[in-house]
Specification:
This protein is α/β, with parallel strands linked by helices. It has helices at residues 25-37, 52-64, 78-87, 104-111, 115-130, 148-161, 177-190, 210-219, 241-250, 266-277, 298-306, 334-343, 351-367, 373-382, 431-443, 487-503; strands at 3-4, 6-9, 42-46, 69-75, 94-101, 136-141, 165-170, 198-203, 224-227, 257-258, 394-402, 410-417, 420-427, 448-456, 465-473, 476-484. It contains 16 helices and 16 strands. It is globular. Bound molecules: 3-methyl-2-oxobutanoic acid and zinc ion.
Length: 513
């Protein structure tokens, strides 16, 4: 029997710290459910003390998740730890992850604390956390640049105090694989009670080495890796979950451990996170990039046709790439629709919700004869059906766009605000610009448009366009999504979706991690 490698996903916490990647509570729950389908061991749902919104999101994830452990981050102080403990209370399995910086530069310049004070605070923090759960993780922030003697001292003390996982973060992405592996090996060898805990690593990607450093640590004895879907995270991001999992799975000849991840859920998870955050996945990204399994050169294609393993070390299906098979069409019934969505992990709270979703599916099937899984997922997220209960103050009722060579493009929209319909018109440099200006004329949000991106969900010119609109107002950033076979309509839906999210006002204190 191989040892277990624990996968700790921090997409909802460190991932959300990517500028512009903020997610609503509903979106976090949706991602958490997909992470559970992926069978990640631990979901770091957020930083409960950062704001009331973050607290509520951690709590909502704790309520929704049954299989994975739900974790909240907390600084090593009593207030943060109490917020974390209360937020995760509803979870079946719960963890508190408390941290304090241990590098000379962080202790002296940021915390203004001596190493002894830091050690004392860390030990107290473990005691506070153990009031709420027996599963307590301790992180020495900036461990990659901390003195090894001090790390040995503080880790030994927190293990004695009751920490059950010790995390060694390379917070600034400074480590090199051979050094980082050596650091983990030394810690495990030198600390007398090191066998009482799971050793974990959390690597940032500033030098593009997050995955390499994490894998070097696993070879040196780490048995938990902290990572994110698509490598999302602070600055250059964290180690990418899909790369860690597939490296370990593919190179079982080298690794003494394996994960319990259902790898077929990797691509759906990647797409969901990309769609919700508006962060596109680069085509040549390992495992989840659109070209990750595409063979362009004739020699490669010939090789793959003759014997797949000549150029492929993994199978596309194994990581969840669908063969784009048509799943439903306009003649499909309500039951087939419901069953396929259940297979994709989307369920309905009521018959009425199912009926509404089915009606929208029929509308789509009239426009687009072949409906793929990706279309269904977009349809459901577009309408916020899959568990979403966002306030829908603004709703598109109908639209008319005019675009002709030599003429100024125009948009006329009918928008319902709190159920009351308003008609508004505007011109613009193109129909999308005209539509956005028309919306602003009506709602006067004065939000700043930070990002507008369009993606085709499937292939072919009848594909649905999926639009992300990122708006910023008073320091708050939200991503709106919209999908439609008409990309201008999709754009309007995405803009209104972002405005609806801005309304769900959620002040967010910078977590200072
Ligand atoms: O990068 C880091 O050090 C962190 C810790 C809080 C684990 O995110
Ligand atoms: Zn981090």
């Amino acid at each position: 029997m191989k040892e277990s490698l624990i996968i700790f996903d921090t997409t909802l916490r460190d991932g959300e710290q990517s500028p512009g990647a903020s997610m609503t509570q509903e979106e976090k729950v949706r991602i958490a459910k997909q992470l559970e389908r992926l069978r990640v061991d631990v979901i770091e749902a957020g930083f409960a003390a950062a704001s009331p919104g973050d607290f509520a999101a951690v709590q909502a994830v704790a309520q929704a998740i049954k299989e994975s452990t739900v974790c909240s981050l907390a600084r090593a102080n009593e207030k943060d730890i109490a917020a974390a403990g209360e937020a995760i209370a509803p979870a079946e399995r719960k963890r508190i992850h408390t941290f304090i910086a241990t590098s000379p530069i962080h202790m002296e310049k940021k915390l203004r604390m001596s190493p002894d004070q830091v050690l004392e605070q860390a030990v107290k923090a473990i005691g506070w956390a153990r009031r709420y759960t027996d599963d307590v993780e301790f992180s020495a922030e900036d461990a990659g640049r901390s003195e090894i003697d001090f790390l040995c001292r503080i880790f030994e003390a927190v293990i004695d105090a009751g920490a059950t996982t010790i995390n060694v973060p390379d917070t600034v992405g400074y480590a090199l694989p051979h050094q980082f592996g050596e650091r983990i090996r030394t810690l495990i060898e030198r600390i007398p009670n090191s066998d009482k805990v799971i050793w974990s690593v959390h690597c940032h990607n500033d030098l593009g080495l997050a995955v390499a450093n994490s894998l070097a640590a696993v070879l040196a004895g780490a048995r938990q890796v902290e990572c994110t879907i698509n490598g999302l995270g602070e600055r250059a991001g964290n180690a990418a979950l899909e790369e860690i999992v597939m490296a370990v799975r593919t190179r079982q000849d080298v690794f003494p451990c394996d994960t319990r991840i259902d790898t077929r859920q990797i691509v759906p998870a990647s797409k969901l996170v990309s769609q919700i955050t508006g962060f596109p996945v680069q085509p040549n990204k390992a495992i989840v990039g659109a070209n990750a399994f595409a063979h362009e050169s004739g020699i490669h294609q010939d090789g793959v046709l003759k014997h797949r393993e000549t150029y492929e070390i993994m199978r596309a299906e194994e990581v969840g790439w669908a063969t784009n098979k048509i799943v439903l069409g306009k003649h499909s019934g309500r039951n087939a629709f419901k069953t396929r969505l259940a297979e994709l992990g989307i369920t309905f709270d009521s018959e009425e919700q199912l009926n509404q979703a089915f009606a929208r599916f029929k509308e789509l099937a009239d426009k687009k004869h072949e409906i793929f899984d990706e279309d269904l997922i977009a349809l459901m997220s577009d309408e916020g059906v899959s568990g979403g209960h966002e306030v829908e103050r603004y709703r598109l009722v109908s639209s008319c766009f005019h675009s002709e060579t030599g003429e100024t493009p125009k948009a006329r929209l009918v928008i319902a605000i709190d159920g009351e319909e308003h008609t508004v018109e505007n011109e613009g440099s193109g129909p999308v610009d005209a539509a956005f200006k028309a919306i602003e004329k009506l709602v006067q949000s004065n939000a700043e448009l930070l990002l507008y991106s369009v993606n085709a969900i499937t292939q072919g010119s009848d594909a649905q366009g999926e639009v992300t609109v990122r708006l910023s107002k008073e320091g708050r950033i939200v991503n709106g999504q919209g999908a439609d076979t008409d990309i201008i309509v999709a754009s309007v839906k995405a803009y209104l979706n972002a405005l609806n999210k801005l309304l769900a006002n959620r002040a967010r204190i910078s977590p200072q991690v």
